[in-house]
Amino acid sequence: MNIDKLEIDKFSKRVQGMSRRLTDLYDNLNTIPVIPKNVLPQALVELGSASEMVNLATEELHQQNEELLQTRTLLEKERQRYQDLFEFAPDAYFVTDTIGVIREANRTAATLLNIPQQHLLGKPMVNFVALPDRQSFRGYLIQLCECSKAKELVVRIQKRNGELFDAAMTVGIVRNQQHKPIALRWLLRDITERKQVELALLKNDCDLSQNRLWHKYSKGETIPLNTGTIWYVCQGCVKLSTLCETGEEVIVGLAGEGMVFGSSLTALQIYQATALSDVALVSIHLAEIAASPALSHTMLPKINQRLRQTESFLLIAVRRRVQDRFHQLLLLLKQEIGQSVAEGIRLSIRFTHEELANACCTTRVTITRLMGKLQQQGKISFDSRHHIILKDI
């Protein structure tokens, strides 16, 4: 039996009515010498009915109170469970207001910063950021409330003893029903080991060219491709191309120093690698990459780089206007093989008009005309060795 608001209102009105009648009965006892026979039984009936309703209501309220106590106990257990998860989490967690003043901090946070847990409360997060990084941190904090997703920031954190460490901060925003920010939740991780791994990967990158046999090819030579190996470029630049249905060459990539290429990285049936300059390469077997986690970590971003560059070349081909394709190609070459010089950005490789035309899926005559136009506009020039210098591209 559940007593809802309507039932309670009915019960209240009935009790008030009986109360008035009993009051009238009590007042009449002093004025009426003889009580009518039907008045007293009627009063007793109403008193009995009211008593029964009160008992039922009391029993229902008692039952609801028991259920409320059970729910409260369960909620307290859940609250304590989440509080324990917060307290004993392996990562440092903070809860701050919208300007970064700490309201809560778990034990890992206190240990990480080497500060007693209670001393963290009320302190601004910026106090623990190394001085050189505080300006960027404040800017990050200002931008936070305008974001809909959690953002990550890498800063240097200073412990109480002055020790510095690299940390990654991930911050989530707590909003009220009006979608206004009311608090921030911070996850702080010490990424010193991650930085060391990155440095180790850089070292491994250098080691790729050491203790391996160097293969040297002269400009214009075709480089043999083996499905079981990947080439790593130590010096020079390699042109990667395929053939279209008309038999014309189409450039699909450039592999400069520190980049990789190989037939195992493409699904093209016709895939050719040509030295654009004198090059030095080392061969890395796929089985060796699979067997070495460190080597795999080193090679993965290089393979991703190769795929992203290929997509960039494909993007050039889908542009409708030739001048747009050529402009996009120059931007890509500027990014991939550009070198800063006094006049602008110099392309380190000298391309023939035919090669540029193949990359743009057009004719050599068209490229010659477009280059002449850009040169007249002062957007490109050439050095003494006929390398393109980009000035306003």
Spell out the key features of this protein:
5-stranded antiparallel sheet, 393 residues, Beta-Lactamase, 11 helices, alpha+beta, 4-stranded antiparallel sheet, Jelly Rolls
Note down, in words, how this protein is organized:
The chain has 4 domains: 81 residues; 99 residues, PAS domain (Beta-Lactamase); 91 residues, Jelly Rolls (Sandwich); 75 residues, Winged helix-like DNA-binding domain superfamily/Winged helix DNA-binding domain (Arc Repressor Mutant, subunit A), CATH 1.10.10. β16 and β17 form a beta hairpin. The protein is α+β, with helices and mostly antiparallel strands and 393 residues long. It is 46% helix and 23% strand. α6 crosses α8, α9 crosses α10 and α10 crosses α11. The chain has 11 helices and 17 strands. The strands form 4 sheets. The chain has a 5-stranded antiparallel beta sheet with strand order 2-1-5-4-3. Strands 6-13-8-11 form a 4-stranded antiparallel beta sheet. Strands 7-12-9-10 form a 4-stranded antiparallel beta sheet. The protein is elongated, with a radius of gyration of 40 Å.
